[in-house]
Amino acid sequence: CKGISLYKQKSYKTAFNLLYPIKDKIINIGGSNAQRDLFSQVLIDCAVKGQKYVEARQLLHSRLRNAPQNKATQRWLDSLKKRTNL
Fold first, then answer.
1. What does DSSP assign to residue 28?
2. Whole-angstrom Cα distance, residue 8 to residue 42?
3. Which distant-in-sequence residues (6+ apart) come within 8 Å of 73 by Cβ?
4. Straight-line distance from the first to the last Cα atom of the chain, in angstroms, rounded to the nearest whole number
5. What is the C-alpha radius of gyration for the chain, rounded to an integer number of angstroms?
6. What angle do CA 57, 12, 51 make, to 5 degrees?
7. Confidence (pTM)
8. What string of DSSP letters covers 18-68?
9. d(CA 62, CA 73)
10. pLDDT-derived band of residue 8, with 50, 70 and 90 as boundaries?
11. Do the Cβ atoms of 13 and 52 come closer than 8 Å?
């Protein structure tokens, strides 16, 4: 909850640092696939806006491995590559 609250307050690096360690455990709290996907999107947005570009790239590549046809994720990755030259 604290990580999501910090995200809303635009404290992206701190939010990322709280949310990233629990990314693989989020399934344990339940919720729908869409709700878990929203968590993933918030985490990636925290990484990008918090300038944690390596982590953002890794998270985006992971999303593409799970859903290779996801055009939104591919656009997000392309945008990150243009912005950071990673």
1. G
2. 10
3. 60, 63, 64, 67
4. 31
5. 13
6. 40
7. 0.89
8. HHGGGTTTGGGG---HHHHHHHHHHHHHHHHHTT-HHHHHHHHHHHHHH-T
9. 10
10. very high
11. yes
